[in-house]
Amino acid sequence: MNLFYIQSTIRGMSHVASFLEDNFIGMTWPGTGDLEEMSPEEWNERLRGHYRLEDTELAGVMKDLHAFVHTMQDGDYVIIKDDEWAYVGDLGDYYYDDSLGVEEDFICHRRGVTWLGRIPLEDLNDKVQALIHQAAPLAQFEHRVSQAQLDRYLTDMSEPTEGTEGTEGKSSPTTKVNKATIDAALHVMRQALDSEDINIRVRAAEAILQYARSQ
């Protein structure tokens, strides 16, 4: 089991609200198609065909995408953050979604996430602080997940004991929607009400009203 941090601000735009609301994380570089079954040579060809990248930048993009598609696994954990909170989730499978188009800023490479809760940034220990302050689009925690000390806040987040095989003791993703997750989503929706984008404000208002009517 591993822990990852992924940037949620892409080309100056924060995607925290959509990541939390729609239960996914993602990376850009659309127009390449589903990379899961492709060879590195095909990745290289498709990226060169859609983007004018120098060799060094191309190598970096391929490294990040390889980590996103192959190194990350169903059942690993991921952190995203805004200015106040870190949001922790349980990762699902990789998928490619270009249903909205393949514009340069569109997030087509995705992984589903079951959000487990949020933690104030100042409460994260030094090891996790180092992780979330890396400049790379995607970074892997260099220690055992237990050393992140997140279990104090996320009761569903546990690491199998050494030598344990399989997923025994792991909660089903459908059981992990808890009050902390709801509070985290509402916090982001309230922030989205101040967005300059009218569409984001409308969607945030609709989500909050829908939640209020369900109570």
Q: Overview of this structure, please?
A:
It is a single chain. With 215 residues, the protein is an alpha+beta fold. It has one domain: ph1033 like fold (Roll). Helix content is 34%, strand content 20%. It is built from 6 helices and 8 strands, in the order E-E-E-H-E-H-H-E-E-E-H-E-H-H. It has helices at 16-22, 40-50, 55-71, 126-132, 179-192, 198-214; strands at 3-6, 9-10, 13-14, 24-27, 77-81, 85-96, 109-120, 138-140. The strands form 2 sheets. A 6-stranded mixed sheet has the order 4-7-6-5-1-8, with helices on both faces. The chain has a two-stranded antiparallel sheet with strand order 2-3. Strand 2 (9-10) and strand 3 (13-14) form a beta hairpin. The termini are far apart. Residues 158-176 have low confidence and may be disordered.
How would the blueprint of this fold be written?
Blueprint: E1 3-6, E2 9-10, E3 13-14, H1 16-22, E4 24-27, H2 40-50, H3 55-71, E5 77-81, E6 85-96, E7 109-120, H4 126-132, E8 138-140, H5 179-192, H6 198-214
Parallel strand pairs: 1-5
Antiparallel strand pairs: 1-8, 2-3, 4-7, 5-6, 6-7
Mean pLDDT: 82
| H and E string | EEEHEHHEEEHEHH
Our Rg estimate from Cα atoms comes to: 18 Å
CATH topology: ph1033 like fold
> Which class do the helix and strand fractions yield?
alpha+beta
Do you know the CATH architecture? Roll
Q: State the helical fraction.
A: 25-40%
Q: What is the tally of helical segments?
A: 6
The geometry reads as globular
CATH class: Alpha Beta
> How many separate structural domains?
1
SS elements, strand count: 8
Portion of residues in beta strands equals: 15-25%
How would a crystallographer describe the biggest sheet? Answer: 6 strands, mixed
Specify the oligomeric state: single chain
Poorly predicted runs of 5 or more residues: 158-176
